[in-house]
Design goal:
By secondary structure, the protein is of the alpha/beta class. It contains 8 helices and 7 strands. Bound molecules: NADP nicotinamide-adenine-dinucleotide phosphate.
Length: about 260
Amino acid sequence: MFPYKEALVTGASRGLGKAFANALLAQGVTVWGTSRDGQRLPVGVQPLSLDLSSPESLTACIAQLRENAPEIDLIINNAGGGVFCPFSIFPAESLDSQWQTLLAAPISLCREFYPLFARRCHGAIVNVTSLAGTFPIPCMSAYSAAKAGLGAFTRTLMLEAAGTGVAVIDLQPGDYATDFNASLNQPEHNASPWSKRVWQCCEEHVKNAPSAEHAARKLLRALQHQRSRVLITGSFFQATLGPLMARLLPEWAVRWYLRQYYT
Ligand SMILES: NC(=O)c1ccc[n+]([C@@H]2O[C@H](COP(=O)([O-])OP(=O)(O)OC[C@H]3O[C@@H](n4cnc5c(N)ncnc54)[C@H](OP(=O)(O)O)[C@@H]3O)[C@@H](O)[C@H]2O)c1
């Protein structure tokens, strides 16, 4: 039997979040799903409006969950998007919204629900970070930084959650075939030959990437074990060989490889 009864999946309108929501529904879990437009959510999901870049929207969403989802025992902090732009011309106003969306808001949701789960000695928190936290992507500096920060937070929470009955998972996806690239915010004056080359690499990754359902199967299997862990998912190269290489090689060699790869 699936160990959790009621879940929140942020960003459930498409991509990985939609696949997580559908997989949980198939297990008989009650799923609350968020989107900036509460209408776009899959059938069967309890809809919530949430714009993570707005602290007011987050407060309203938490209030709704407190009132309507008393048995919630699983949080999947999935929603996210990025800005693709060399740092030298990165729009200053986008920095705050990246931290808020990718780091501050997911941590606030953990702050809301982790103490409740710990008191009940039951529950799970999944923070969707990224392999970009380990293998940074040029032109995505704020995104990579926010994901690395969320990963560090998640692994800290794992230490604190040991023995409480709460499972904490740092889900680090490699590339998946979703609308993620299409929805990246790209400032118009961003077209240097090098950033075009980096963009081409990102597009090629997505063409050959596994489907979102692959990530959902991996995550559900991990949740069945009710144990904290870092879960790296994606193609064999990204999820297995890449991390192995990063463990065995010195840091400068990994950086050299990435620089060659994106040039
Ligand atoms: N796909 C990949 O290759 C990949 C790799 C590593 C990590 N990830 C991470 O996986 C997560 C899901 O990405 P995806 O690939 O499924 O992307 P996606 O297809 O673009 O879906 C993104 C989801 O997040 C929601 N969202 C975006 N910005 C939001 C905001 N400011 N406030 C609230 N919701 C917001 C969107 O909902 P609405 O537009 O309906 O509001 C949508 O449901 C993200 O955290 C991403 O960083 C993805």
